[in-house]
Design goal:
- The chain is an alpha+beta fold.
- The chain has one domain (3-145).
- The protein is 34% helix and 33% strand.
- It contains 1 helix and 8 strands, in the order αββββββββ.
- Strands 1-7-8-5 form a 4-stranded mixed beta sheet, with helices on one face.
- The longest helix is centred in the N-terminal third of the chain and has 50 residues, at 3-52.
- The chain starts with a helix and ends with a strand.
- 22% of the residues are buried.
């Protein structure tokens, strides 16, 4: 008779605990997948900038079609970037958000003084998802999301 309340409590306690643990695990898995994608995008931006930032490269535009998944666990993601200018250069902070889930990550890219970021938004499920880099005749390199 004494054990009945304990048994009833366990009926409710174990499923609730298991649900909380699984939700935490799923969010962690999504965060890791989105962070890997953000790191890949930041690396791609760095490589585009470095490729165009050579004196032998003339003015022009380079488009990089992204090889990132359009969905992470069934969710599309969006991204944008903002400048942070410390005393020793320019840092571009790239922020990705998983749409429909409460997951957001940030990756940073260090670029030179001649870099510019054109305000733009990345949509992972767009057929035009990519990163563009324009080298101007004055040596400025403008980077942005788009096709």
């Amino acid at each position: 008779m004494i054990m009945i309340p304990i048994l009833i409590m366990q009926i409710f306690l174990f499923p609730l605990t298991a649900s909380l643990i699984m939700n935490n695990w799923v969010d962690s898995r999504r965060t890791i997948a989105l962070q890997e994608t953000a790191s890949h995008l930041s690396s791609t931006i760095q490589q585009l900038y470095s490729s165009l930032n050579h004196a032998t490269i003339s003015a022009g535009t380079v488009t990089n079609k992204l090889d990132v998944p359009p969905f992470i666990e069934g969710y599309a993601f969006s991204g944008n970037a903002t400048w942070r200018t410390p005393s020793d250069g320019k840092i571009l902070d790239l922020t990705l958000r998983l749409m429909g889930a409460n997951v957001e990550v940030t990756a940073s890219v260090t670029l030179g003084e001649n870099a510019e970021w054109k305000n733009s938004t990345l949509m992972s499920n767009s057929t035009y998802a990519g990163i563009n880099a324009e080298k101007m005749s004055n040596g400025t390199i403008r980077l942005y999301f788009g096709s």
